[in-house]
Amino acid sequence: MKKILFSVLPVLFLGILLNCSSVTKENTQMNTRNYQIQREWMLVSFGHFTKADLVNYKAKIDLTGKLEKGRIQATAFMGCNNISFSSEFKNNGNVNIKGLLSTMKACQNMDLESEFQKKFETMTKYKVEGHFLTLSDGKGNIMKFVAADWD
């Protein structure tokens, strides 16, 4: 019995040892950053629009899309058309938003959507604080979002 125990014990110990791995700080930061960014965000502050307007339009960006080479394939909705775009959130707080494409439905009030499309690609900075994402362009224009999964 002791012979079996002494031959199995080293194998189990070696198996446990080989299954343990360490994660580098860089990977942890990248995964945490992606988790913080890759969410659905509801627009709560933008230009002259009230929070009630933004809630009524169900204004949001969805950054849960595919992450490829540091870029997120994402979508937005501002009450009428579906909008798609590509975004890159860099570790230094810079954001690069490109390739806005939109469906072409004609809706009664497209003020929010038109204004959003004009300003969104000009956003160059981002900040995540708690459950808020803030985009800014350095010229005083700001878009503030709250995480949709925040309670």
Task: Please render the helix and strand layout as text.
Layout (H helix, E strand, L loop, with lengths): L1 H18 L5 H13 L2 E7 L4 H7 L2 E3 L4 E2 L2 E7 L4 E8 L5 E8 L8 H10 L4 E5 L2 E5 L5 E6 L4
Antiparallel strand pairs: 1-2, 1-9, 2-4, 3-4, 4-5, 5-6, 7-8, 8-9
Relevant terms:
single chain, 151 residues, alpha+beta, nine-stranded antiparallel sheet, 4 helices, 9 strands, 32% helix, globular
The largest sheet, given as strand count, sense and whether it forms a barrel, is: 9 strands, antiparallel
Secondary structure tally: strands: 9
Give the ordered list of helices and strands: HHEHEEEEEHEEE
- Whole-number radius of gyration? 22 Å
Low-confidence runs: 21-32
The tally of helices reads 4
Sum up the overall morphology in one term: globular
Distance separating the two termini:
56 Å
Share of helix, binned: 25-40%
Helix/strand class: alpha+beta
Mean pLDDT reading? 85
**Strand portion, in percent?**
25-35%
Describe this structure as you would to a colleague.
The chain is of the alpha+beta class and 151 residues long. The protein is 32% helix and 34% strand. The chain has 4 helices and 9 strands, in the order ααβαβββββαβββ. Strands 1, 2, 3, 4, 5, 6, 7, 8 and 9 form a 9-stranded antiparallel β-sheet that branches. The radius of gyration is 22 Å and the shape is globular. It starts with a helix and ends with a strand.
